[in-house]
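Hello Y.,

Per our agreement to keep a running log of every chain we model this quarter, I'm adding this entry. I've kept the format consistent with earlier entries: sequence first, then predicted structure.
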Amino acid sequence: MPIHRETILSFLSRIAAINGVSAADLAMDMGFSIKKIINLEENAVRGLAECGGLTDEQIQELVSWTGQAVGGVRMAFRDEIFVSRAVRNPIMRGCPICLREDASNHPSRPISRMAMRGDWQLRELNLCIAHQHPIVPLWKNDLPTDRFDISKRLAEILPAVLEGGLDQLRVTPSPYDLWLSNRLDTGLDDTWLADKSLYAATTFCKLLGVELQQLQSFPDEIGYAVEATAHDVGFDVASQGEVSIRAAFNSLAARADGQNDEPKKAFGKLYSDLSQAHVDKHEFAPFRKLLRDCIIDIWPVAADENMLGVTQKERLLHSIKSAAQETGIGAGLLDQFLVHAGAISAEDKRPAARKTFDAKAYQELLAEIPTLVGSLEMQQRIGATQHQLASLAEDKVLRPRIDIPTIKAPWRVADGMALIAELHGLASSIQRNDRRWETIQMARRRSDLSVGTLIAAARSRQLQVGHREDLWGYAGFSVLKSEVDALKSLRKDQQEDFLISAAAFARSVGMRREGWFEKFMAAGHITGTRMPHPKIGGMRIYISKEDIAEFHARFVTASTMEREFGLHKRTLLARLKAAHVKPFAPNAQDFGTLYLREDVEAVIKPARIVSRK
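Predicted structure for the entry above:
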């Protein structure tokens, strides 16, 4: 009778041993060659079944543990598809203790009882679970007809088997060993790998484990192959699923932090095999996708670049190096712009090839940098002198794209031209010799009002604007002297000390999100007044003391609660959350950690009293 997990070739050889002949000779006596039974040709299998008295179920079981070619150098093995070399190999392996126990069942004719188990053939199997013994090489033969004449080969190694010459130290089965044995035996799997090809899963576990072993030292039991430990390490990660695998990938990626370190350096043979040997194998698709997703999240993979068999549709990340190559901008200059824009941190000390940022979010910046101009060209393009451009910049009427002194070309011509177009829209034509008018720069010197204040007044129609016909661009814009004098007098008389800027108020209550006050005011929850800044011009929002008092009477923020109740803001917010008090958010608008005072005082005041006892 067949032994559990026995191959059909082993069964043939045991019958041959019972009859005192070789497997090849027995096959010929039954009317077929051993080569035909190796290839599981139907006539040969049927002949063996008749000779051995096997049922259809027994034949199917023997074939399933033997492995049957299905074309394309692939084999069906235990209802799974493997590449042939993963199951059929010139090196025959096995458990010497299993063989010795088999032999002890018939000491006078031991080879008739010694069975070769099919799972021993599997390249990714490391251990006999029953005996906790490593699977070891038994013999090697490149010619299949000789290799699978098993009774002959067993006779050659019989003394070593019986005398323990092939024995190694026992090893406690790992979760990988138990998982593989059970899946081969029953097909059941309760891990994330359940719906993955067994061939791909075992291969991936080994490839991943080999790379992870390089991150730290793993205990390696004496006499146990390094590959076995790699399988265990890889399985511990892969069996838990995508999150665990991605964390392992991130750890591997972190070690490749050099200037020219690409994915091959980070992932080693795992990357090489998934990008070459296994790139077209559909069963490896889930593992390729996980690795590809990690790579495109970390490395600057270009659009149309092939990554693990998939053409990247669009670039997700740029590095300083890749952006410099694509735009022709120097890496050092580009770094300054990207730090200024918040794309990368000034504290990021990685080399240019590894310092990455969101390519889509900053594509406009990359396109814009080559179009920026220096101060001299900006003056020429808008028709301004050096002092005039400096005054516009000082009062932030025109802002450089990046305000770093070492940047020689910080100006956007479009900003300057937009200002010129706006002022032209406000201006009327005036004659050169009309003494009622003076240029904006002259008005600044005479009145001590800033250029920003003068232009803000022009925008609000407090000042008329004229443009001299004999001058081009910004230099030709003028204002009426009498109106400038009136504006100066008005500014002097104004008492604005009862007002605070909206930005300063927002900071005072801990609301530092840009645009918070404007959004809050637009929703109608607070009032403010728009007026020019008294020194630099430009319209600003101001809030009165009365408005502030009204705000505090109705609302509290995390910062004002902390000052008012004397508890840390985290404690306060935790109590509000526990009491199901939610931030003030009418119509699902997000105003941050802002609460209605009446809601808060219903919870916090009692808590404050208790905390003082």
